[in-house]
Specification:
Largest sheet: 5 strands, mixed
Shape: elongated
Number of strands: 27
Low-confidence stretches: 8-21
InterPro entries: Beta-lactam/transpept, Beta-lactam/transpept-like, MecA_N, NTF2-like_dom_sf, PBP_dimer, PBP_dimer_sf, PCN-bd_Tpept
Structural class: alpha+beta
Protein name: Penicillin-binding transpeptidase domain-containing protein
Keywords: Membrane, Signal
Organism: Fictibacillus fluitans
Number of helices: 23
Pfam families: MecA_N, PBP_dimer, Transpeptidase
């Protein structure tokens, strides 16, 4: 009992002694200061400086100094930790105590780590004692003195390039030219030169005046007005104007312009709101970022990592110390399976039309082309597209900014081989049975206003003839025999209602039970109308089971050293079904009665299917028509093309599309040995 009482008295005595002492503990104070520093709360840091330190620098200068330096070096992941000794440091003869602290941060020049010391002094303010920091310039970086500056040099990483399978550049690092004015070189009649330049560049004279009136402009300075492509014909005209000069700059260049615009996308300078989100990833205000297409998808791979150097220099700009240095790491280039000869040829065939096309190697799944028509020039967006030009693109009824190959459309009769496959696999279709059909219209008993129409009035058709003549009635009746449930299940085996295993985002091809809400809708589905929709790439892929013994091939965008077949879905159909459909598709193109026969090709034996999808809002009206043709070389199945062109109702329907696809086959097969 006495022992416990003694311990209690000692504890009370210690508390009394502590209570009598008015000297605060420095440890919480140094921790608070370091916490404010780590949070970059420079205002609060300044409030914790000693009186003598505040005499050496004002609060405004203190805050600006830290903000400018940390902003300039892009300080991220800042860690400031004091080293707390086991025993409280003893004051020196001036009453200062010293703490060691560790600093870690990521910067444009790589990681910065250092250990430094700071002195603290006890002061009384407002009748209360506390510890305050004896600050000097070495607290920013060790070795830094008053009058010194921190200099930052950024070494830009080169953006990786996007190349086709043959090494042709789709998106490359090239040169452009800034057209500008050196004010002191303008002739006496300045306005005449400015007006002439405005006319050549297609801009307002006011734009030139605003550039020349900027606060930084000096008589001998080059003042950029507009950036133009290296091959822009306006460049030579501008250089002939008095007072106008040009200078080259590095820029992103898209050599194939409209032909690959929706595939490549483009880069643009990073925006302020984006920079706030991405600064931690090393982005800087002078960087560009991928906006659309492959430039956006491969952004992380293409952009690389900037390097830099952080130096401390004296008032004479002589280097005193190198704080950090990091080499730039260039971005990695991407080599695609895309063949720009083929891509360009398809775009040439479609240039005057609105539509989309894809080309694949149906054996390997290599995606050889993804085309959208019309396109736009990505270089305009990199160099700075004018408001008027952008508005003209937005208001163009052909919608050149719409990426059609990423969206779905009713496939029309190109869906019939899928219907036939489902019918054969479910044993609901006898391919050899001659079905008697009278006239161009058919209506199932019990239907009210619903009719199915066809083009050819063949009195009886089997599967081969139905595909060859593209008989809507035959396939409507086949779909009704299959039934809604099996129709949807069969379509899903072909990849409907799910994502394509592909790098780029595509709208999913769709056919659901909810889509088929009536017998009439099921009948329409059988010949590719109703609510069945497919994107152009999936349409081409859906024909690969007919070539690969029933296996649906997965698409591949990036080139491989040894391309191997990757199967998306195995055994979609049996080899027997695949062989049957393939031989019938040969008839569609090679038989004179087939819808895909004209114009016949010499030395290239194609198989395929035509299609026309009619888009109308109500029964009985004449709607807009989209024309299709899907074809592959049956003897050398290394190329399969799917093409859709909008608004063919006055152009012969799908017969308008067939020659375009065949022309590309002719060109490609002629040039193929050169690859």
């Amino acid at each position: 009992m006495k022992q416990k009482l003694g311990i209690l008295l000692i504890a009370l005595l210690l508390m009394v002694i502590a209570g009598c002492s008015d000297s605060p503990n420095p440890e919480p104070r140094i921790k608070e200061y370091m916490k404010n520093w780590q949070s970059m709360n420079f205002d609060k840091m300044y409030g914790m400086l000693s009186d003598s330190s505040k005499k050496s620098i004002s609060k405004d200068d203190f805050v600006k100094k830290y903000s400018a330096i940390y902003g300039g070096i892009n300080a991220q992941n800042l860690s400031i930790k004091p080293v707390i000794p086991k025993e409280e440091p003893e004051p020196d003869k001036n009453g200062n105590i010293t703490y060691t602290y560790n600093v870690k941060m990521d910067t444009v020049a790589g990681p910065v780590n250092y250990k430094h010391k700071i002195k603290m002094k006890e002061q009384e303010k407002n009748d209360k004692k506390n510890w305050y920091m004896n600050w000097d310039y070495s607290q920013i970086f060790p070795g830094m003195d008053k009058g010194d500056k921190v200099r930052v040099q950024t070494n830009k990483a080169k953006r990786g390039e996007i190349l086709d399978r043959n090494g042709n550049g789709l998106a490359v690092n090239g040169m452009a030219y800034q057209v500008g004015i050196v004010p002191q070189d303008l002739p006496e009649n300045k306005d005449a030169s400015k007006k002439e330049l405005a006319k050549v560049l297609g801009i307002d004279k006011k734009t030139i005046d605003n550039a020349l009136n900027a606060s930084w402009v000096q008589p001998g300075f080059f003042v950029p007005v507009k950036t133009v492509a290296e091959d822009d014909p306006r460049l030579k005209k501008a250089e002939k104007i008095k007072g106008v000069s040009t200078q080259s700059i590095e820029t992103r260049v898209y050599p194939y312009k409209e032909a690959a615009s929706h595939l490549t996308g483009f880069v643009q300078p990073i925006k302020a709101d984006e920079l706030k989100k991405l600064q931690s990833q090393g982005y800087e205000s002078t960087d560009v970022i991928g906006r659309r297409g492959l430039e956006k998808f491969y952004e992380k791979q293409l952009r690389g990592t900037n390097g830099g150097v952080i130096r401390i220099v004296d008032s004479a700009e002589s280097e005193k110390r190198k704080v950090a240095e990091k080499e730039a790491v260039d971005g990695k280039s991407v080599t695609l399976n895309i063949d720009m000869y083929l891509q360009s040829d398809l775009y040439k065939q479609m240039k005057k039309d609105v539509g989309t096309a894809s080309a694949i190697n149906p054996k390997t799944g290599e995606v050889l082309a993804l085309v959208n028509s019309p396109g736009f020039d990505p270089n305009d967006f990199v160099l700075g597209i004018s408001s008027s030009k952008y508005q003209s693109l937005e208001k163009d009824p052909k919608q050149p900014m719409l990426n059609r190959f990423a969206y779905t459309y009713a496939p029309g009769s190109t869906f019939k081989p899928i219907t036939a496959s489902i019918g054969l696999e479910t044993n609901k279709l006898d391919p050899n049975k001659e079905v008697q059909i009278s006239g161009k219209k058919w209506q199932k008993k019990g239907w009210d206003k619903k009719f199915v129409t066809r083009v050819a009035t063949v009195p009886s058709v089997n599967l081969e003839k139905a595909l060859m003549y593209s008989d809507n009635i035959y396939f409507a009746q086949t779909a009704l025999a299959i039934g809604k449930d099996d129709m949807v299940k069969g379509a899903e085996k072909f990849g409907f209602n799910e994502d394509i295993p592909f790098e780029l985002d595509f709208e999913n091809s769709s056919l659901t039970k909810d889509d088929i809400n009536s017998e009439g809708m099921l009948a329409d589905t059988g010949y590719g109308q109703g609510r069945v929709e497919m994107n152009i790439l999936h349409l081409g892929l859906s024909y690969t089971p007919f070539i690969n013994n029933g296996n649906l091939i997965a698409p591949k965008l990036e080139k491989e050293d040894k391309p191997e077949q990757k199967v998306w879905k195995k055994n979609v159909i049996s080899p027997e079904t695949a062989s049957r459909i393939r031989s019938d598709l040969v008839k569609v193109v090679e038989d004179k009665r087939g819808t895909g026969y004209k114009p016949p090709l010499k030395n290239i034996a194609l198989a395929g299917k035509t299609g026309t999808a009619e888009l109308k809002s109500k029964i009985g009206e004449k709607g807009k028509e989209n024309g299709y043709f899907v074809a592959f070389n049956q003897k050398d199945p290394s190329l399969l093309i799917s093409m859709m062109i909008e608004g063919v109702q006055e152009k012969g329907g799908s017969h308008y599309v067939v020659p375009k696809v065949k022309n590309t086959f002719k060109s490609y097969m002629k040039e193929k040995p050169l690859r």
